[in-house]
Amino acid sequence: MPSVSVSRRWRDRALMAGLVALVGVGLAGLASVTGWEESLTQIARLHPGQIAVLLALSLLNYLLRGLRWHLLARRLGLPTRLMQDLRHYIGGFALSVTPGRLGEFVRMRWIRRETGWPVALSAPLALMDRATDLAVMGLLLALSLALAAGGLTGALPVTAFAFATAVVATRPRLLAALVTLGYRVFGRLPRLFGRARQAARALSRFHHAPTLAFALTLGFAGWLAEGYAFHLLLGFLGAEIGLWKAVAIFIFATLAGGLTGAPGGMGGAEAAMLTLLTLEGVALEIALPATAVIRLTTLWFSIALGLLVFPLAERAAAGPAR
Known about the structure:
Elements lengths: L1 H33 L1 H9 L3 H29 L5 H10 L10 H14 L3 H29 L8 H14 L2 H15 L3 H13 L6 H28 L6 H17 L8 H12 L4 H34 L5
Helix pairs in contact: 1-2, 1-13, 2-13, 3-4, 3-6, 3-10, 3-13, 4-13, 5-6, 5-13, 6-7, 6-9, 6-10, 6-11, 8-9, 10-11, 10-13, 11-12, 12-13
GO cellular component, one term: plasma membrane
Subcellular location: Cell membrane
Keywords: Cell membrane, Membrane, Transmembrane, Transmembrane helix
């Protein structure tokens, strides 16, 4: 059994390394087409203060969503404190780009070790967190499309998909019925489907209007902060396309990357962002560094924060369950 787990770990690492290399080669190839000098010149235009603003807006997003995690954890009945929940939430970012979204599982593991709650009981927290993200991103994308000056109509199907998924994920009976249907179709893994059905029914704990409203507000503000950071970045590089169009491109690319199933949306998010920017008339020598920088100050910044917090979370979870 240990050998299987070790081989799986190496396989996942190899897959992740290959994915990172693929994205890197793709961006490097595009940079060579436009000329390295132009891309590097655009990046050199950014001052440390501007980078700090972009990172601060990303940090605001993570803190607001971490506060939402705490709110949902309290509603679920978990006996955790604010700093404890923030430690779990941000520490989980260390595994954001691992196959199978291991960041979600490690959060559940920390909760089990620190509180004694089994994963089956705490799993609805992760599911609700993902669902509210989909809901607010769908709402933000729809609002951006409505306020943007034309274009981006191709984002409407992604908006509809985000809303539909969020609705299914937050309706306990509907989700439980889909889990049951899945079991009848595949007829395997009864324990896994049983736990999934139990987690789906536990979502009824979150059907509390003030909690849902506050959770959606926190998520909306958080993702808007990162969309605004993308707008500022384009302005720093001399490509003014308007606030709401920039927000729409950022949110659409993030959702599109997630739909590919790749860890962290890698590859899909960058491709969507580059395509939409060039369609909006942004020169490739600006679109390319803009895409690279925003991914560094959002996805990779969150991973860096996660790596800093991860050892603290592991140390805290190593003690006896409280």
